[in-house]
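Re: the multi-chain job from yesterday

Posting the exact lines I submitted so nobody has to dig through the queue logs.
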Amino acid sequence: MSDVILEVKNLSVRFPIRSGILQRQTGAVQAVSDVSLQVRRGETLGVVGESGCGKTTLGRAIVRLYEPSEGTVVFRGEDITHKTHKELSATRKHMQMIFQDPYASLNPRKNVGAILEEPLLLNTNMNREERLARVFELMDLVGLRRDAMNRYPHEFSGGQRQRIGIARAIALNPDLIVADEAVSALDVSIQAQVINLLVELQKKLGMAYVFVAHDLAVVQYISDRVAVMYLGRVVELGSSKDVYADPLHPYTKALLAAVPAAHPKDRKKVQPLTGDVPSPANPPSGCHFHPRCRFATDKCKTEAPALRRLGHVDVACHHAEKIKSGEVQA
Amino acid sequence: MSNFSSGDAVLKVEGLVTSFRTDDGTVTALDGVGFDIGRGKTLGIVGESGCGKSVTSLSIMGLLPSGVGRIDAGKILFEGKNLATLPEEEMRDIRGNKIAMIFQEPMTALNPVFTAGEQIIEVFMTHRNMDRSAAYKAALSMMEMVKIPDPERRLEEYPHQMSGGMKQRVMIAMALACKPAVIIADEPTTALDVTIQSQILRLMQDLQKDTGTSIMFITHDLGVIAEMADDVVVMYAGQVIERADVVTLFDHPLHPYTKGLLASIPHVGQHRDKKLSTIRGSVPSLMNLPAGCRFYGRCPYRQPECEQTRPALESHKGAHEVACLFAGRIDAGEIKPNYEALGGE
Ligand SMILES: Nc1ncnc2c1ncn2[C@@H]1O[C@H](COP(=O)(O)OP(=O)(O)OP(=O)(O)O)[C@@H](O)[C@H]1O
Ligand SMILES: Nc1ncnc2c1ncn2[C@@H]1O[C@H](COP(=O)(O)OP(=O)(O)OP(=O)(O)O)[C@@H](O)[C@H]1O
Ligand SMILES: [Mg+2]
Ligand SMILES: [Mg+2]
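And the result, structure tokens for all chains:
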């Protein structure tokens, strides 16, 4: 069996835009556009990009919280693109999601013990004793004290709630966890605790992560490979080392250049990218990035560049070779 | 090296104590906060959620919710006046005029039923006594100053028609309209994307060079502090625990909390085979504060005295100040961190 756990092929997700009193559909937002990628067993694929670029939509389409408009999602060798809710229940055991706001995703009327026991109750035939043992094991794994079992979500801090969310996600030993901005709402000192926990759990349990976040340093830290998205498309995909050390796509370059300095002596001197991110409901023609790109030529205005291999990474830019060789410069 | 608290401070905060009445009793959100903002300088205020950054700015602006929040003690000295005790009529003349504020969420500060233009024009008409046509011209030039493309058209737009970055530019234009001596910016870029954040940070730096305005820049992001600040105040649970110029703070943090905070951020170039340092535990609740050092429960360097003795903010070397009983000995390497004593993560 191949070690590819997830294969996304030419995936697109569109949302209808409705307006007027009759709420007629007047257009569509192409939230995810022709995305192809693979995730291998036990690896972490980071997904970065600015607000509205489609990160959440991609993550949700992967776990089939959204149904794709086009393309396929193959998970553990099985095409799950159009499975019904009922057909998916067996699959769901193996893929879980962690959200930005753990509070919103935890039932406020259930205590931690009940929250963690629920997936075991629904999906396994463990008896009460076995379930309790597993709940304790899960609490140990994520660093929650066992005596917290009878407490309710509102009694915990943000970081602890995220631990509860993580414990629930790993309860059934999934092969894949999609984490959507899982540490974004946490204070830095707590964020580091949760990141360490995710890394450690992956080492112990071997699941793959799709780690969606807008914080570039965090994604780089945790990921084996990174996909950079812009207005629904993947514009660069490669090992996190390659992409961060030597970004090829002009957008990736600009994004990394915009990350604030780690030290006041390294203050950024580069000119920031101009212009706003265009609306995904009405993206620019050709390469979506061309109005903000300093390398753009006429071809970029009309022809959308496909994602293609260049050296060690995949990049969607007509001028990637010239940028790589240094033939064209800022 | 820039020196903290040069004699030339525009705004001086001393021993500020601010509290709120809540259903569970009174909480003291600020407990003896003090700092200076140098003329034409940027003071960064950094700390985790709930440490009192926003309450500090609301206290200075006289915007604490009335009947709920109040200043119990301390001084806010600005142009020879103590803003902490200034009557509301006089405060109104200072607010938005001599001290202006930029918020994280421009939507809450901009009025949704008026166009951007009407709102900037209003500022010029009330604070600068301009007539409508002069105010329109001034508004247009402000829009150009904050580099809003197509400014005539943008003046006619309502806030909901603008992107987050555009709204923040409008907020900055409004804040600058009266040439304030101080701008208080409370997480002005936190809700923005990094490329837009870098545009706004650059804009604020350029405008500061041109106008000489002092900026109090509140953020939880140490990277933004590294980009923007001349001087830095680090807050923890309602107190200032360290003050220094920005380079000193990053090169040579003294307080165990500051050290921990700086070590816990992943930097581009760092990979997960090297574990991130963390600060154990979480911030204590203001309802249930320890008697001594507020960082005691999380501090790997703690000593028995720390549990009961509250450390004062004291000078370590020159203008570098720290509130830690053992900062000197920790710095000299005489006290080593002991993580075991803190128990699990
Ligand atoms: N349920 C929905 N209905 C309609 N449009 C949607 C829906 N979900 C997302 N969109 C639109 O799809 C685009 C992509 O949104 P998405 O939430 O995936 O972006 P994101 O990259 O996760 O952004 P952020 O960083 O802000 O979380 C946006 O234009 C968004 O407005
Ligand atoms: N209106 C209020 N009533 C009661 N308590 C309040 C009120 N406003 C603030 N507080 C309390 O004061 C403390 C400091 O809050 P503040 O908003 O200044 O934090 P902050 O440092 O700005 O945090 P953040 O990074 O989350 O914005 C918090 O514990 C908060 O709960
Ligand atoms: Mg999202
Ligand atoms: Mg705040």
